[in-house]
Amino acid sequence: MTDAALREGIAHVARTHLGFEGELTDATPLVEALRLDSVRLLTLVAELENHFAVMLEDGDEADIACVGDLVAVLRKRMGAGPADPAEGTPPG
Predict the structure, then answer these.
(1) Which residues have C-beta within 8 Å of that of residue 78, sequence separation ≥ 6?
(2) What is the CATH number of the domain that holds 32?
(3) Mapping DSSP to helix (H, G, I), strand (E, B) and coil, where does residue 5 land?
(4) Does this model's pTM top 0.85?
């Protein structure tokens, strides 16, 4: 799954379950943009797990500040490598 598809899935969940109406980019700060309190955060996590058929783990949230961080964690939990094959290519 591409990063763009992951971002669109996150946006879909945010619109459907949190009433979010804006645009999400990799730099969008999640807490501020989605007005996340403890209940809204639990809703986001549960709905992302359902949407992407993944299980987020305790500690994942420590690495997530913005949408790009969430994309990376979802990609990791889905067992995928870098979305762009060039990202996984060593310099040379």
Answers:
(1) 1, 52, 54
(2) 1.10.1200.10
(3) helix
(4) no
